[in-house]
């Protein structure tokens, strides 16, 4: 099978999966928009890979494929950093909520014992 067809089908599949996840509310909109953007970039570049060669020579990179791979790795690295930040923030919120609930339980128990 031709590589162009495989990559175009992969890009189309990514778009369909993301839209379906958004429709079922299993993916938040802020992440869905990001991945739809990735699919929309991936789809035309898979059909017209020569466009990468012109842009890469303009930047000074030898090959369009190398440039695409480099930007994909940078994008995934930034995505991982962002998700790590989100997880850290949510862990902190969960810890604070658990402490608040424990304090409320302790206060309720002391009030029940006082009565």
Instruction: Give the topology string: H per helix, E per strand.
Output: HHHH
State the secondary-structure class.
Answer: mainly alpha
Apparent shape: elongated
Proportion of residues in β-strands = under 5%
Mean pLDDT, all residues: 90
The helix tally amounts to 4
| Largest beta-sheet details | none
Q: How many strand units?
A: 0
Helical content (DSSP H or I, runs of 4+): over 70%
Distance between the termini: 78 Å
Which blocks of ≥5 consecutive residues have pLDDT under 50? none
Radius of gyration: 24 Å
Organism: Longispora fulva
Protein name: DUF2304 domain-containing protein
Keywords: Membrane, Transmembrane, Transmembrane helix
Transmembrane segments: 6-22, 34-52, 58-85
Describe it for me?
The protein has helices at residues 3-23, 29-47, 50-59, 64-114. With 115 residues, it is mainly α. The mean pLDDT is 90. Helix 3 crosses helix 4 (64-114). It is built from four helices and no strands. Helices cover 88% and strands 0% of the residues. The N and C termini lie far apart (78 Å).
Key terms:
mainly alpha; single chain; 115 residues
Quick description:
With 115 residues, this protein is mainly α.
Any chance you could write out the topology, listing elements then pairs?
Layout (H helix, E strand, L loop, with lengths): L2 H21 L5 H19 L2 H10 L4 H51 L1
Helix pairs in contact: 1-2, 3-4
């Amino acid at each position: 099978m031709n590589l162009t067809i495989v990559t175009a089908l992969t890009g189309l599949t990514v778009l369909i999966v993301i839209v379906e996840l958004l429709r079922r509310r299993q993916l938040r909109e802020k992440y869905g928009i990001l991945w739809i953007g990735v699919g929309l970039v991936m789809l035309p570049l898979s059909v017209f890979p020569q466009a990468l060669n012109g842009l890469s020579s303009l930047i000074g990179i030898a090959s369009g494929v190398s440039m695409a791979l480099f930007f994909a790795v940078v994008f995934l690295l930034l995505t991982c950093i962002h998700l790590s930040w989100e997880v850290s923030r949510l862990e902190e919120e969960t810890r604070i909520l658990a402490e608040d609930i424990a304090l409320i339980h302790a206060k309720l128990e002391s009030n029940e014992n006082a009565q």
